[in-house]
Design a protein that fits this description.
It is a single chain. This protein has 568 residues and is of the alpha+beta class. It folds into three domains: 274 residues, BirA Bifunctional Protein, domain 2 (2-Layer Sandwich); 129 residues, Alpha-Beta Complex (YbaK protein), CATH 3.90.960; 97 residues, Rossmann fold. It contains 14 helices and 31 strands. Strands 3, 7, 8, 9, 10, 11, 12, 21 and 24 form a nine-stranded mixed β-sheet that branches. A five-stranded mixed β-sheet has the order 16-14-15-17-20. Strands 28-27-29-30-31 form a five-stranded mixed β-sheet, with helices on both faces. Strand 5 and strand 6 form a beta hairpin. Helix 2 packs antiparallel against helix 6 and helix 2 crosses helix 11. The longest helix has 21 residues. The chain is globular, with a radius of gyration of 29 Å. One of its GO terms (cellular component) is cytosol. Its EC number is 6.1.1.15. It holds the Pfam family HGTP_anticodon.
Length: 568
Amino acid sequence: MKHSQTLIPTLKEVPADAEIKSHQLLVRAGYIRQTASGVYSFLPLGNKVLKNVEKIVREEMEKAGAVEMLMPALQPADLWKETGRWYSYGSELMRLNDRHDREFALGATHEEVITSLIRDEVKSYKKLPLTLYQIQTKFRDEKRPRFGLLRGREFVMKDAYSFHDSQESLNEAYDKMFTAYSNIFKRCGLNFRAVIADSGAIGGKDTHEFMVLSEIGEDTISYSDSSDFAANIEMAPVNVQYEKSTEPLAEIEKVDTPNAKTMQEVSDFLQQPTDKGIKTLLFKVDEQFVLVLSRGDHEINDIKLKHAFNAANVELATEEEAKQLLGAEVGSLGPVNVKDIDVIADHAVAAVVNGYCGANETGKHYINVNPERDFKIDRYEDLRFIQEGDPSPDGQGTIQFAKGIEVGHVFKLGNIYADKLGAAYLNEQGKQDIMIMGCYGIGVSRTIAAIVEQFHDENGITWPKEVTPYDVHLIAVNPKNDEQYALSESIYQKLKANNISVLFDDRKERPGVKFADSDLIGLPLRITVGKRANEGYVECKLRKSGEQFDVHETELIDKINQLLTEQL
């Protein structure tokens, strides 16, 4: 493609609203443009990268036995009401009414649509297992769209769904998808981890997120420094043996703690370490109040709390509710003398000796508090966030943290949606049974941003070979020079004839502008036709390493093919 015949509007300045490198560079290099907040057009270069990522996805999906289809973006509300998600999904679901006042949603995800389709079309075990996928635009009304393609209101996603007659069949498909996802992200050149995750609003159990390591990631990954263990911090189990002090139990005493509300403020006031404190929080778990305890230096993980109660919703009680129920402001709450409320504690609390906690009187705390002697705990659970330096849950090494960008997620859904939507089949015994499902998603457009976050330098993007919009950037230094232009045109035609994708900068621009744009756009190999054109020589430059060398036009195709195979 000739530069003069396409649309590549590069920018010298960093856009004011672009906070991260991928957003800045994709806009500056002419790959995307914002149409509305969180909504982007993919310009010709951006569209080529998008199609290249989609190609990788399609190839690996086919290897995994998945078949491509396409479902509507416009979904009737009745399907969502059947599963209950019309009411529970939240404000991110974009809802609208047609001219007949019928309710619809723009597809944020497609569990309801695909399950209703399979319910109507598949009636026998002989058609199972079956895995279907699509690559389609999704819509979510993000409260705060940000970071360009990483958090938008409209984005391209690959979503796949598998249907089974046994858990063993689902496990097999899950493993195939796990492998396919690993292959996809490896082919995209990404440094990533597959981590144990929470299923969130989708539902189901046994899930993994595929996280691209990046300092701008919104998720924290906990991983072992000595093994393959990795988990989202929300899901990492804590496997710590807490040692209990042998000091004599002291008498409980109520003390004033004026203006000390946070655990650190109370610790400083009492001149006691935070690990002797008992943090007390009041939660509403499916509308029931629960008092949750952790050690003072730990943080309660509401995802673990949700799983401990197998609850649909978990949220902190309001200050008003806490005061009405326990008689004190948040910061002075505690478990002593609490009645008619379940008390659940993290395992670390059991090892606290002569600790301190709120007295359920504003500005007062108990000291020398001991669990079981001074208050009852209904049960102990793993409720806290794992911390750096904790032993790895698999028993190998210690935990480290890293930031990550979620680019893929695989779920074992079970029969959540099949049961609610009546997706049944006749088994081998001729009896009706409910299908078992899996769900597998990749943020295709989000993956592009993640690639740029890992593949850039101070001058621009440095695309990996499999996703680059073009392999070669051909530059005619002075198109007005007959020898330079003739050689450039000859090389351009030879590259196309040999199926080497090329962007030919034939613009009548200054060389400095062309070279700066070339670095910004980030194609793997630059070929410059300049002052040695009369000798048939061109300059080659590898974008990533900066290595430069001259090649004669008669050897150029062989050299490019070698580079594409070995180095780029």
